[in-house]
Amino acid sequence: MSTPIRVDFISDIVCPWCAIGLGALEQAIDRLADEVAVDINFEPFELNPDMPPSGQNAVEHIMQKYGSTAADIARGQHSIRTGGDSVGFRFDFQKRTHFYNSFDAHRLMIWAAALGRQLPLARALFSAYFTDGQDISRHETLVSIASAAGLPEDQAREVLGSNRYANEVRDREYFFTSRGVHSVPCVVLNGRQIITGAQSADYYEQALRQIIA
Description:
Number of strands: 6
Structural class: alpha+beta
Number of helices: 9
Strand content: 5-15%
Number of domains: 1
CATH topology: Glutaredoxin
Shape: globular
Strand order of the largest sheet: 2-1-5-6
């Protein structure tokens, strides 16, 4: 009999380590396919809530926000690409040139939950942004991504053209930040065990096995 486990995956679309962490988590779940029944619930977190609609050049943003040098950024990108390779995810920093506001993408993610399509949408958003370099703040881009994830275009366009789920995004963000979540990815297992940062598939597998036991 499979053990039911709820996973709250707190993340941001513009966070590369969130894409890596999700890939590793899925690898761990696949290894335990006969032992667990995992329900992944995506929760919103904005790394750059004040990012303007036009976005900002990624190198410029990282230098300003973290005081990084060009060499620091190059090393970081190498680590990210290596992490991506380990979970079968491709990062293309020639295409991913900017950081964008992710608030509307989070609104779509909450909408997708009601349709049972959060995971496919999360995968599609990460790929569109980090692999294809798309502007995930543009509504038409988001509609196209939603469609690729198996969601109805007309409903996606309706959601984005309104203010639906805006309060839900803010409320969920406040809920987690008020409880000490200040960086992502952050994984919460069954509402109790917290795992911060992108971990390896082995690490997630061990955590899941502890719950099974």
